[in-house]
Write a structure and sequence with these properties.
The structure is a single chain. The chain is mainly alpha-helical. The protein has two domains: about 100 residues, Cytochrome c-like domain (Cytochrome Bc1 Complex, Chain D, domain 2); about 90 residues, Cytochrome Bc1 Complex, Chain D, domain 2 (Orthogonal Bundle). It is built from eleven helices and two strands. A two-stranded antiparallel sheet has the order 1-2. Helix 4 packs antiparallel against helix 5 and helix 9 crosses helix 10. The termini are far apart.
């Protein structure tokens, strides 16, 4: 006890305690402060993206969708559509709309990806909606192609045709071709249901099933893929196959029938 008391009265005791306290404080700050700082930086970056997105929206979108995204007679409300819908519509060039029509066609995008992300951040701030999918969600790697084909034929082929070649709908509308479409945009279309297409949220079609469909389309539309049934006739399904049967199949039967009749008539004359 006497030795401990002597050490406490040592002139350097206060300095040692102070250094120890500083070391503990510095260690705790190093352990906890970086996460808080990173979170603050993310929040600041998100706020900046929303602010820049609002500026872009005011110039390119507000005239149709309203100053606050509430919609007008020229454009629907964007409250609650989510970042995914913006990434799809603007990323495929469908928006901003060039002119009013039966539906918005795909065209060259006028915004770069950074600007699209800013627009998406602003629209997402107006109301909760589907977020932009990650690469793991839409990458066809490891997906069940056979299951994707089954799902596509059940839910999509009636409009997009059996291999995604597209097709006509009523009143000048159409289901676009799905060839050479970015897998992310296919996933987003299933998420949000653009224009005439129904939406398939995760409660209706799971992430895995969406990924399976993307893998199926990637396979059938690949330049390296070969039709297991031979001549694919454009991959347009029973319409082109039926036309082929009527023109060539039935035509061949008619030719054979005429030839048989001619041979029979010739034989009788002989």
């Amino acid at each position: 006890m006497k030795k401990l008391s002597a050490r406490r009265r040592h002139p350097l005791a206060a300095v040692v305690v102070l250094l120890f306290a500083l070391a503990v404080t510095g260690g705790l700050y190093a352990a906890f402060a970086p996460a808080d700082t990173a979170k603050a930086d993310d929040t600041a970056a998100q706020s900046l993206a929303i602010e820049e997105g609002k500026k872009l929206y005011s110039v390119g979108c507000a005239s149709c969708h309203g100053t606050g995204g509430q919609g007008t007679t020229d454009g629907p409300s964007l409250v609650g559509v989510g970042a995914s819908a913006v990434d799809f519509q603007v990323g495929t060039g469908r928006m901003p709309l060039q002119q009013q029509g039966a539906q918005a066609p795909k065209k060259k995008a006028i915004y770069d990806q950074a600007e699209i992300d800013q627009l998406a951040a602003y629209i997402a701030s107006l109301g909760a909606g589907p977020s932009v999918p990650s690469k793991d969600q839409y990458s066809p790697d490891g997906a069940d192609i056979a299951k994707g084909g089954e799902l596509f034929r059940t839910n999509c082929a009636q409009c997009h045709n059996f291999t995604g070649k597209g097709g006509a709908l009523s009143n000048g509308k159409f289901a676009p071709s799905l060839e050479d479409v970015n897998p992310k945009h296919i996933y987003e279309a299933m998420q949000t249901g653009p224009q005439n297409m129904p939406s398939f949220p995760d409660t209706t079609m799971s992430e895995k099933n969406k990924k399976d469909i993307i893998a199926y389309l990637d396979t059938v539309n690949s330049s390296k893929s070969q039709s297991p049934g031979g001549l694919e006739l454009g991959g347009l399904g029973p319409v082109s196959e039926g036309l082929f049967a009527w023109i060539f199949g039935l035509g061949a039967l008619i030719v054979v029938a005429i030839w048989v009749a001619a041979r029979t008539a010739k034989a009788k004359k002989s």
